[in-house]
């Protein structure tokens, strides 16, 4: 989602949020927990996995500049994956309140985020998720 924002707006949003220093093997987000924040990896690597029928399946490795948890945050649904640090990491944490404040300040950001949601959601989910956010 952040990659859809103008470069200056990305930097401004990241400057107003908290950064966390995490050690190796720390959980960033847990599948099934409420999606109250999204995360941006500043340093380090994070493994993304999904529990499917009782088995953990690794679906990817993310690194600096990558974001995670944004869909859960934007749709107000639980995280669909678990994120685990593979090494020491620095991660920016963007809460729902911070994102809402940023969208209020910059109205055009809301349309950018809505367009991002349009690309990810099934047609029947789009209207509900976008109207919830207004």
> Which spans of ≥5 residues are poorly predicted at pLDDT below 50?
123-134
Number of domains: 1
CATH class: Mainly Beta
Beta-strand content bin: 25-35%
Q: What separation lies between the terminal Cα atoms?
A: 18 Å
Principal-axis shape equals: globular
The CATH architecture is Sandwich
Task: Please describe what this structure looks like.
With 134 residues, the chain is an alpha+beta fold. It has one domain: Jelly Rolls (Sandwich), CATH 2.60.120.10. The protein is built from 5 helices and 8 strands. The two termini are 18 Å apart.
Nutshell version of this structure?
The protein has 134 residues and is α+β, with helices and mostly antiparallel strands. It contains 5 helices and 8 strands, in the order H-E-E-E-E-E-E-H-E-E-H-H-H. It is 37% helix and 32% strand.
Question: What order do the helices and strands come in, and which of them pair?
Answer:
Elements: H1 7-15, E1 18-22, E2 27-29, E3 37-43, E4 46-52, E5 55-62, E6 67-68, H2 70-75, E7 82-85, E8 89-95, H3 96-105, H4 107-120, H5 123-133
Antiparallel strand pairs: 1-8, 2-7, 3-6, 3-8, 4-5, 4-7
Helix pairs in contact: 3-4
